[in-house]
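Q: A small favour: would you put together sequence and structure tokens for a protein?
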Amino acid sequence: MSDRPLLSAGKSSHYGVSDRGNDSLVLPECDEQNRRMVEKRLLRKLDLRVAFLVLIYIVNCVSSCI
């Protein structure tokens, strides 16, 4: 796996992170197996949301053609 952080907070403190010159939010130290599990769960959530949005788009296109 990569050494990049899973979450990034950008320059704002939207996530309650104080901006001390570090522009990324790093998860607490965890082992490689835990990181893989978190990444799989995150990707599954994102895939489901994108699939839902695609379904809404298709239904919208079909209903506008009728």
Notes: The mean pLDDT is 77. The longest helix spans residues 32-65. The two ends are 48 Å apart (CA to CA).
